[in-house]
What we know:
Blueprint: E1 2-7, E2 13-15, E3 21-31, H1 38-48, E4 52-53, E5 56-67, E6 70-78, E7 88-93, E8 98-101, E9 136-139, E10 143-151, H2 158-166, E11 171-172, E12 184-192, E13 200-208, E14 212-215, E15 222-226, E16 233-237, E17 240-242, E18 247-257, E19 262-273, E20 278-279
Parallel strand pairs: 11-20
Antiparallel strand pairs: 1-3, 2-3, 3-6, 4-5, 5-6, 7-10, 8-9, 10-13, 12-13, 14-17, 15-16, 18-19
Amino acid sequence: xxxxxxxxxxxxxxxxxxxxxxxxxxxxxxxxxxxxxxxxxxxxxxxxxxxxxxxxxxxxxxxxxxxxxxxxxxxxxxxxxxxxxxxxxxxxxxxxxxxxxxxxxxxxxxxxxxxxxxxxxxxxxxxxxxxxxxxxxxxxxxxxxxxxxxxxxxxxxxxxxxxxxxxxxxxxxxxxxxxxxxxxxxxxxxxxxxxxxxxxxxxxxxxxxxxxxxxxxxxxxxxxxxxxxxxxxxxxxxxxxxxxxxxxxxxxxxxxxxxxxxxxxxxxxxxxxxxxxxxxxxxxxxxxxx
Length: 290
């Protein structure tokens, strides 16, 4: 076996920018039956080419034939490091959230016909004459959260794969990362495994929604025990509590408005319901992989 590797005079072309790169170019001469041994050529270049150059990391080795027994190899260097088992990357997206609401925070203006008093809307949005409530879509806080893990193939067990699909759509039953109980929904995971790579990239996707304890809708509320003076005293509280991924809806009742002699609607009751199963999302993290 005879393979000689020499760096070309035209080597070391570089780009100095926010995403710097450099190419080292080698001429490879083969003989003694190795003239078309592409695997041997890449292996020989890998021995000669440094793993890092000028602070950049080797990313790829390309080879192509110039003539019989003569090859050219381009070794590319960049800022991106090669994945290593144990690497973790966080991705956050707070754009794109909307919510459909039927109750306004406040009614700041009412305009009617001359000589007539408009019926009160009780902060209901889009209340039609037939009682239909239209509501409106408004921007809402959104917190899409992703975790990219680089795992060893032995960590991607059958049990772990089962977790990825069986826990989709669940809400965290215990504190998870920066999320309090009830704030994080697991939206599923993906993984990529290539035969040529000694690692597997697993991506976990979540969506956060903040818990609330002070939602107010009309006069709806409940009796609570006030213990500020030492002994419990029942008081009426209009603060409504809702965990991030629970569902809140409002029941409206028709009532007569004495001022306008009209039938109007007002919130009669507020319901907060659990619509998703809960699970321990910490089990999804590789440190907890079965």
